[in-house]
Amino acid sequence: MTDRMLPPSIWPKVIVPSVAARGAPQLATLSEAKWLGMVEQARQLGLAPLLYVAVKPLRLPADPASPARQILRMLYRQAAILALQRTAELQRLLAALASVDICPAVFKGAALAHTLYPSPACRPMGDIDLWVSHAEMPTAIAALEALGYHMREKRDRPHALTRTTDGEVQMLAGQPGQGLVELHWGVFPGEWLAHATAVDRDGVRQRLVETRLLQQPARALAGQI
Fold it and tell me: Residues 6-27: pLDDT tens digits?
C-alpha cells in the first residue's frame, strides 16, 4: 500500500458530512500525503467541493498551512464561482420562461444542486436541463433566443429524431454568463428505449411537483424534492 492510498473505511464515505464527523479521530491521523491523495481523488471525481464541506467544520487537516487544505479550499472557491454563475443563469431562464407562461421541469444537476446538496457548489454541472412539453418547445426556444442563446441542430441527430426519442434541443451560449442549456422533449431519452418499451409520459407529467426555485415557478420530478 502506497503512502497515498486510503483505508476503505474512510474513502469515499468521508464526503458525507455526518460520516466525516464520526470519523474525525481517524481523519486526524492521516498523513499529509494521504490527504493529498484523497483531495486528488475527489477532484478527479468532481467531489472536491463536497469533501470540503464535509471536513471544513472539523478543521481538517489540522494545520492551516497544509497544502491539501489549501488545495481543497481553492477547488471549492472555484466551484462556488461557477455555481453563482449557473444559479444566476437558471434564475434568468426560469423568469424568461415564466414570462411566456411556461413552467419547465428542472431536473438532473440543476435540480439536485438546489435540493439535495449542501450548496450548489457541491454539484458541478456541464449544462442546465429543462423539460418542456412538445407544444411549449417552439415558444421556449424563442424565449431563450431572446436572451441571446442560439439553437444547434446536429446533422446526425435532427430535431425530428430527438423529438421522437425524448432527446433535447441544445441552446448554445451567446452572451457572457451563459452556458449550454438543453431543452428536453422528455426525460426518457434514447432510440432503443423508444422502441423497446412504452413510457407513460403523460402520467409522468401529471405527477410533476409544482415548486418555486430561485424565487421563480418551476416543476420537479416526483420524489426529487
Answer: 777 788 899 998 899 999 999 9
Q: What does the alpha-carbon distance between residue 104 and residue 43 come to, in Å, rounded to a whole number?
A: 32
Tell me which residue of 20, 2, 1 sits closest to 11, measured CA to CA: 20
pLDDT of residue 8: 75
- CA separation for the pair 58, 200 (Å, rounded): 47
Domain ranges of the chain: 13-62, 84-220
Q: Report which residue type is found at 195.
A: H
Backbone angles phi, psi at 207, to 5 degrees: -95, 5
CATH 3.40.50.2000: does it fit domain 84-220? no
Q: CA angle at residue 90 from 152 to 41, to 5 degrees?
A: 90
Q: What pLDDT, on the 0 to 100 scale, is given for residue 3?
A: 59
- Residue 206 is inside which H or E element, if any? helix 201-206
pLDDT of residue 192: 83
Other Cβ atoms closer than 10 A to 69: 21
Residue with grid cell 481553492, as numbered in its chain:
74
Q: Is the peptide bond before 124 cis (omega within 30 degrees of 0)?
A: no
Closest CA to 224 of 141, 140, 131: 131
Q: Is the predicted pLDDT of residue 89 greater than 90, yes or no?
A: yes
Could you tell me the three cell numbers for 40?
Answer: 486528488
Asked if 127 contacts 181 with a C-beta cutoff of 8 angstroms, the reply is yes
Angstrom distance (rounded) from CA 48 to CA 76: 7
